[in-house]
Amino acid sequence: MPTVEPLTLQQTMLHEIPRGRRQDKGGAEPLYSSAPTPLNPATDRFIREEMLQPAFAFAREIVATDTYGSPVPALVRAALQNPDLLADNSKQIADWMHRKQTNGSSAGVFLAALAKASAGDRFVILKAEHQEGVRLNHETNGENVVFEVEHLTELIMGQNSRVYKIGLFWVDAQDQLVGLMVDKQNGVSFADYFLQQFLGCELKHRAEVQTEEFVKAVTNFINTPGMPEEKRARYATAAVAVLESPSGQLTPSSFISEFMDAEDRDTFSQSLPSQIRSSTFTKDTRLVRSQIGGLKVKTSSGVTITASSEAMQNGTVIVDPTSEDGPRIIVKGEADSYRLSRPPA
């Protein structure tokens, strides 16, 4: 999980975004504020400590790219360089979100803020729902709209309000616009429109995809035609042990050198995707959680055996490829019960 330094909010803009996508004809339009909303200490603390900081536990590291044609990276970078641009640039960012969000997206509050951290300036984007049964009061002076600060607590500070999406940006030492993204509505399966079409970013690290690629490579390799049964069982058991270990890192080259026979190392290494072959990455099993914790062995006789990794390691299930009667699987123990079942998949 990325470490996020405490933030101090400097200027905060609030806009209202209606439900769904912006329509060219008809339909609700966003309501834009024309000036920053001053925050009282209690509101400031609540946004930082109750809405932003807890959400960063789900954050993903991102980096801006020109691939998707989003104006957000340029608007964010400009406001970081010149705070006077926050009001106008935040309107454009809010409008872009309304254009790119899906038709089923909830109405909510769009917050854009300039913030300070010990390492430098930060730009915050947040979308949260309205608390049910309250209204946002605002003052209109000519064409300008300004939200009143005393109504901010009614708008987003209720305990039942939900934070939908968050972006936190800064410029790194290489002059790249980087940051963190939180999509609490979609979790691991983040909304592509939010990351790519709206924020104009890519994930900096895709640990769950790298972990999944490792699992696929191991599975394909041990099921190579002609692979000895003893090796299949040993390599599969080793892979499960590595995935279930307390270590937060996964290094395929270490797995190869520690668990694989010399004659198989080069072949397996070449079967790995190049981006993970010689790298160490965060072990993230969220995409393969249903595939680990045990082993499923399909036999040529039509019997499928599912066993825990512990059963394979302690000898409860034994693969014996040298039996006089031919390769066999030995399961130790007594049957607790019998039940009718459909054929194994």
Structure overview:
- The protein is 31% helix and 25% strand.
- The chain has 345 residues and is α+β, with helices and mostly antiparallel strands.
- It has an 8-stranded antiparallel β-sheet, sandwiched between helices.
- The longest helix has 16 residues, at 207-222.
- Residues 150-154 have low confidence and may be disordered.
- The chain has helices at 41-52, 72-81, 86-100, 152-156, 192-198, 207-222, 229-244, 252-259, 262-271, 274-277, 309-313; strands at 8-17, 31-32, 60-64, 108-117, 120-128, 138-141, 144-147, 163-171, 177-183, 201-203, 249-250, 281-282, 294-298, 304-308, 317-320, 328-331.
Structure at a glance:
This protein is an alpha+beta fold. It has 11 helices and 16 strands.
